[in-house]
Amino acid sequence: MSGTLGNVQTFQATVPLSVQFESSTDSIHMTAVSMSGQPVALNLQGLPLPPVIQTSFKADKGLPDGLELMSLIEVNESIACPDHSQLEYYILHPEPQIVYIPNFVTPEEISHLIEVTKGSFTPASVYRNGATDVDSGHRKSENAWPPRDEVLQCIEQRARRLQQLDSGLEVEPISVQRYHVDGFFTYHYDQFAAPPNRRNRRSTFNVFLEGDCTGGGTHFPRIPRPTDPNWCQYIDCESTEPGTIFKPIAGGAVFWLNTRDNGTGYDETLHAGMPVKSGRKIGMNIWFWKDFRKYFDSAKDVNTQ
User: Annotated Gene Ontology MF terms (predicted)?
Assistant: First the structure.
């Protein structure tokens, strides 16, 4: 897998889904934040955008084709969970917001999730133009869906409270991914190629449950690597790939926003699961959705007054 993005064939994946959005941007202006919080302005010219697959929508549809029956979950705020209000986190990038959380899940939660999904993994599939199939040329991993027990509900609650200023969020059923040697997930977006006035994936938590491996990092080729050496405990500072690669450290999580407040997607969130060279990686994805039709309805009401 290389940093040359112009020839990457993009695709869509079934739940857990990864789908493309349309953009005409051919240059990117972004601002990085160092570990010490100092902003560093950058201007990256000439990074080619990958081709995209269009997702069709009817005028009255809120969800993409094939996902009309997907159940989004309202987070259980009434359940009593351990206090994680003092979680340590570091802001890598302000817009789109990308944050690293070193101890997002506990060792006990990790052991539980690995135990309850043991024996239930199936090959991950990809989705193209309404059809699903297993394609190891684009994605080589396995998926499992843990039961929504108290442990999982507390993780949902923790993730939701870290986004307390964002209203109207619902969570997709949480999935666990397992990667053996040579397992990977090529460059993709988590948001849909949706018109902005639809439901879409607002945010992602990419959680590492087991990282007893070499390789297997999460690569953001369009996000510049910070120069502060303190970041090297969490990102791969020796890689020759462009951009930033987060190390798969058990317990850690990468959080990012997929869409702006108006529902349009960020080009910079293009990312990949890099190949596992040795050992095994287990991760977990938490996706929060938002109904951006409410944003457009509010704007329409203001304009008609």
Answer: iron ion binding; L-ascorbic acid binding; procollagen-proline 4-dioxygenase activity
Half-sphere exposure of 114 (CA within 13 A, CB side): 19
CA distances from 93 to 31, 40, 96, 113, 223 (A): 7, 10, 7, 29, 8
Say what percent of the chain tops pLDDT 70.
70
Grouping H, G, I as helix, E, B as strand and the rest as coil, residue 297 is helix
* Residue that the structure tokens 């090297």 belong to: 232
Beta partners for 31?
A: 41
Measured distance CA(213)–CA(135) in Å, rounded = 23
298 domain residue, yes or no: yes
Per-residue pLDDT tens over the stretch 215-265: 999 999 999 999 999 999 999 999 999 999 999 999 999 999 999 998 999
Q: Do the domain assignments include residue 130? A: yes
Parallel/antiparallel/unpaired status of strands 142-144 and 175-179: antiparallel
- The Cα–Cα gap between 255 and 204 comes to 6
CA 298 to chain centroid, in Å, comes to: 28
Tokens of 175: 């999935």
User: Has residue 6 been placed in a domain?
Assistant: no
pTM for the whole structure? 0.77
How would you class 129 by CB atoms within 10 Å of its CB: exposed for 0-12, middle for 13-18, buried for 19 or more? Answer: exposed
Q: Over 43-110, what HEC string results?
A: EEECCCCCCCCCCCCCCCCCCCCCCCCCCCECCCCCCCCCCCCCCCCEEEEECCEEEEECCCCCHHHH
Among candidate residues 153, 172, 161, 166, the one with its CA nearest the CA of residue 19: 172
Do 188 and 11 touch, CB atoms closer than 8 A?
yes
**Nearest-CA neighbor of 113 among 292, 298, 253?**
253
CATH number at residue 118: 2.60.120.620
Q: Which candidate, 24, 30, 25, places its Cα nearest to that of 44?
A: 30
Report CA 40 to chain centroid distance, whole Å. 24
